Amino acid sequence: MWPFDAVDWLTLSIPFAYLFILVGSLAVFSSLYRKNKAAKAASLAPWFPPHLQRNIYLSLLHMEPEPGHPKVPDSVLKAALLRRATEDIHRIVQIRNAKQALQVLLQRGSVGDDLWQRFQRAEKEIEEELRDVVNEANAFAPNWGQTIFQSASEMAQNTHLRERLAEIQSTTQSEKEWWEKRKETIKSDFMKELDEEKKSPMEVSSKPSGKTGSDDDAVIVESGGPAATAGKGKKKKGKH
C-alpha cells in the first residue's frame, strides 16, 4: 500500500505546488507593480507649488524659545494659521475649476494618466490639509475650526479685489495717455475739415462766370443793330 499512497500524494502535490507557485508569482508581481506605481507617482511633479504659508506656520509653532527671545505669541500663530487657511481657499478654488475640465480631457484622451494622478494626489493633499487646519484651529479656540475657513474666504475675496483695483489703477495712466492722443487726432482732423470748408467757397467765387460774354454780346448787338440805325434816321429827319 505504501507505494500507491506515495504515488497519490505525489500526484496531489503537483497541482498544489503549481497553485502555490502561481499565487506566489502573482503576489510578487502585484507587490512590484504597486511599488513601481508608488515610485512613479512620487516622482511626478506636484500639482501645487510648496505651501509657503503652512511652512511659516509650522516654523513658528515649533520654534523653541531662546534666552532673551520669548515664545511666539498666540496672536501671531493665529494670524499665520489664518493666512494658511486663506492659501488653502485659493487651492480649493483651483481644484474645483480644474476637475471638470480635466475629466473631459481625460475621457477624450487629450491628457495622460500621469496628469490625472497628479490631480488626484493634489485632492488628497488638500483634504488632509483642511483637516489639519481645522484641528489646529480647534486647539487654539473651541469651534474655531468651523468658522476659520469662512474668515479665510472673506480675506481671499478682499485680496482679489485689491489686486483687481491695483490692476485697474496701473492701466489708468496708459489709458489717459491714449485718450489724450485720441483727442489731439480728433481735433486735428476737425481743423482740417474746417479749413477745407473755408477754402471751397473762395475757390467758387474766384472762378469766371460763363454769362459775361453773352451779356456783352447782347449789348453790342443792341447798340449796333438795325433798330439803332433807324432811330438815328428819324432824328435826322426831324431836324430838316
UniProtKB/TrEMBL annotation:
Region (Disordered): 191-240
Transmembrane regions listed in the UniProt entry: 12-33
Any one Gene Ontology cellular component term annotated for this protein: Sec62/Sec63 complex
GO BP: any one term: post-translational protein targeting to membrane, translocation
Compositionally biased tracts (Basic and acidic residues): 191-201
UniProt keyword terms in alphabetical order: Membrane, Transmembrane, Transmembrane helix
Cross-referenced PANTHER family: TRANSLOCATION PROTEIN SEC66 (PTHR28229:SF1)
Record-given protein name: Translocation protein-like protein sec66
Protein's organism: Zopfia rhizophila CBS 207.26
